[in-house]
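Could you please consider the sequence and fold appended to this message?
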Amino acid sequence: MTESPDTGIIWAFDIPSSGPVVPLDPTQPLPAEPTDGYRWVHLDRGSPGAAAWLSDPKHGITEISAEALVAEETRPRAAIIVDELLVVLRGMNMNPGADPEDMVAIRMLVEEHRVITVRGRRVLACQDLRDEMRGSQPPRTPGKWLAQLIERLLDRMRDPLEALDEAFDELELTALDAPASQLRRSLGEARRTAVTLRRFLSPQRDAISRLAQDPLFGFDDGVRLRFRESTDRIARYLEDLEANRDRAQVTQEELSARLAESMNATSYRLTLVAAIFLPLGFLTGLFGINVGGMPLVDSKAGFWAVTIGMLAITAVQIWFFRKRKWW
């Protein structure tokens, strides 16, 4: 399908209660909304015509909903505005070259015979659902459509979250062997990813939970059961993120203990070296004073006598340290 630059519509479908889905041409004016089934209209928020299309009075969208659908900043939520259900959710950013934790927003307006979705960046879960529309079992009601989209959003989260688990597993395995600077950098990146995902998934769980529990939304029991299953699923994702955060804390403590142990060992070795050279420094300082009466001043073997004496003192010190197991 070709996006309409005048309206920002990317694609549109009429989904009857039975029979095949009817794709609509987004470059042409949309026909009257169906009374049997519902219509799905998908828009690009970045298109200059999207805001104008949403605010057009003939489409019957309240001003509050129209502004919410194109708002710059969003947070996952579900709310009824007049007689419209506004749902804002987030999904993994699976676009090429993007970081999955840089999540993308999908804004939805769900009514009895119409579903309007607005995206800024491409949401692959919407494309998954669009492709399923062409199959033999499309969602026949707006409630089933919403439940199916939420499931596709969660499906897209599974692989990045599993990859994050594997990253924490690898960090735990290499905590005692990897270079400290590399481990610290990898651990920081993994922790930032977990914190970012948790920050968005927590309100998303609350929004989906409200869809499952609030009778004002008017969904049937089958749809509400699917919402509850999605709520449980996202709760498991959050539990995994919490566990990963705890694992990161343990790994950080191991890294700190490893660095502290290394510093202590270095300080200990330096202390031993200083202890060995302390008496030698005293002797060289003593024999270096320029006063009369110094022994061995006139002896040709004086230098070697002092040198051998200092070597003997060093040997005795090393023997003593080893005997006391200090070295």
